[in-house]
Amino acid sequence: MNSPQCHKCLCEYNRLTEARFWTRILMEHALFIKLGLAPNETKLSAEAQGFVELFESLLNRLNRVKKLNPELLAELIEAVEAIIEFKAKVLRLIIQCEMPPGSNYPLLLDHIRREAERFLKLLVSPMAEDSLALLLQQEVFWLRIMKEHIEFIIHLLDPSERELLKQAHEFRKTFSRLLETARDLDSMAQTSPHRFNDVIQFTQNVIQHTRELRNFKAAAFELDEMCKILGIISDPLLLDHVRREADKFLSELDVLLPEVERCHSSQNR
Prior knowledge:
Blueprint: H1 15-36, H2 42-62, H3 70-95, H4 106-124, H5 131-156, H6 162-189, H7 197-225, H8 237-264
Helix pairs in contact: 1-2, 1-3, 1-4, 2-3, 3-4, 5-6, 5-7, 5-8, 6-7, 7-8
């Protein structure tokens, strides 16, 4: 457990892989903002469309390269910084009552701003960290994202969709509890324990519930594609978008959990 190999996590982020995933996500964020703006917000709508085209172009370039070269990385960082400010600007206008929200909830704008800031951090400093600290940081980040996804879905479904709403409310309760626990464990881990078996058991529980939520999102997407869901979901892409983010969370846990088991569990005493 105290060997040199445990002082560095073997899960350092691949910036190209991250860039491909998050660039598509940010392109879709810009589209969702555009769809949610009030019809008279033509200037902001054009600005949002500009970001859709910018990130689509960057994604096409990322899909053609095998390495994130310095020039492309610099352009990507500049684009991410710009869309973070755009999201913040739209949010400020709404919370200052300087424009109608349309269907862009303030929390949704803050949600997607936080995701962009996380991507920017990965681009600027994708350094490996202690696996335990990294796992808990990721769980705190992603469990909040998952909880908010459920809250957005609840507000987009029609009140007559009682069965779907019942499922969604149960997911909200579950992920609220998981997030609170993750924050507690993250705080405890700041004491740098050599072993923390509770985190392993907790993460296994998180994986189980996240898989269930991912399947719920996938099923909702398929129903919406077949016009079998009532509500105000602007585009079925939104449900596929949040499903892909759940898959991303699961993929990160698949990498991080074995590292924590290797270096921070009692079986390696």
